[in-house]
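writing this on my phone so excuse typos. first protein, seq and then structure
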Amino acid sequence: MKFYNLVIKYRLPLAIGLLILAVVTNVYAGFWPAFLLYFIGVILLFGYFFFGPLRLIQEYMENGDLESAEKVLNSVRYPSLLYKPIRSVYYTLKGNIAMMKQDFDSAEKNMKKGLDLGMPMKEAEGASLLQMGMLAMQKSDMKQAESYIRQAIRKGLPDKENQAAAFLQLCSIMMTKREFRASKDFFRKAKALKPTTPQLVSQIKELEKYISRMPG
C-alpha cells in the first residue's frame, strides 16, 4: 500500500523519467527494447491526469490533517481532465475542507460543482446535499436549507449520525416557521436514531428543553 502511494505521489516525474529513458533506448537500441518503457511511462502519465492523486487524501482526512489534504488537492493542476466521478469527488473534498475552514462561499461553490457532475454513490450525494443545507442555514436561507435537506433524506444518507443531523436541522427549521407539530415529529425521528456524536447528543438535550413546551 505504501509503495502504491509512493508511485501515485511521484507518478509524474516517474513518467517523464521513463519516457526520456525510452527515447534514449529507442535511439540506440530500437523501438522494441524501448516499448515497455514507453508503455509504462504513458500509463503513468495517463493516470496522473485522468485519476489524479486523490487516493493520498484518505489518510490525511482520517487523521484530521487538513493542511496536507489541501496540498494534495492543490497539486491537481488540470481538474477538468480528471475522470468525471473522480472530478466530482475532487470538488466535494475541496468543499468539505473549505467548510471546515469556515470559508462558506468557497465551500458552496465547490460542492455545487461536485453535485452538478453527479456523485458516484447515492449516499455520497445525500451527504453533500445535507452539507449544502447546513451552508444555507449558515446564511440564514431557511427555504433553501429545507429544500437541500429534504433532498438529502430522499437520496439517502450514509449512516444514522447523518440521518439524525438531517432531522435535527429540519426540526430547527420547523421551529423558526412555527410549525410545531412537524418540529416535534422531526425531533422524535432524530432521537429514535440514538446518535452518539457529542455535538448531536448535546443538540438533542438542548432542543428537548423547548420541545416539551411547544403547542401541538
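second protein below, same order as before
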Amino acid sequence: MLDKIGIAKRIAREVRDGYYVNLGIGIPTLVANYIPHGMNVVLQSENGLLGIGPFPLEGEEDPDLINAGKQTITTLPGSAFFDSAMSFGMIRSGKVDLTILGAMEVSENGDIANWKIPGKMVKGMGGAMDLVAAAKNIIVAMQHVNKAGESKLLHACSLPLTGKKCVKKIVTELAVLDVLPEGGFKLLERAPGISVEEIVKATAGKLIITGDIPEMVID
C-alpha cells in the first residue's frame, strides 16, 4: 500500500498545466513537492498567497511564510500576497480549478465530512466549505480506513458534512476511485501489491468494478 508521499505523488498526476490549485491541510500539502517539472501550476493558499513552492529545506525555513496549515513554505517567482478576504473572493468566484482536500469520511454520492468530530475540540471549518462549494474539481486524499480498521468510504457519512455531492475522485493508500454522478465508487487503479479483494473488503460504500484493474503509476 502507499504511504502519504505515494498518495501525494499519485494526485500530482491529476494536475494540469495552467491550473490554479488549492491544497488542503495534511496529505494534500505534500502535492506541492511533486508537481511535474516544467508544468505551470499556481498553488493558492486561503490565508493569502498565490504561488506556493515546495517545502523549504531544513535550516532554510522562513517563519513569515506559511500555508493555511501553518507549515513553513517557499514561494516561486511571481508569487503574490494578499489578505484572506481577497483569497476567499478568488475561491467563491470560481477561480480555483482544482481543490485537493483530506477527509474523515466520503459517501458514495460524493458527500464529504472533513471538519468536525462531535465531542472533540476543533479549530473550526477553515476554508473547506467555501472550497467544496466553489471549486471546479475536488479530489480527496485520505486513508481508506480509520485507526480502528473501519472503512472511510461509506454509503452515507455519519459525521457532520462539509459539502454535498462535490467529490469527484479519491486517492487512498489502496486505490484510485471516481465518484460517479449516479452514485458509487468506481475503482480505477489499485496500489502496487494491493488486490481488488483487499479494496472490496476495505470499502463499505457501493464499489463498482469493471474489467481488469491496473496498478497505479506513481513516478
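The CA atoms of residues 9 and 34 lie 6 Å apart. thats all i got for now
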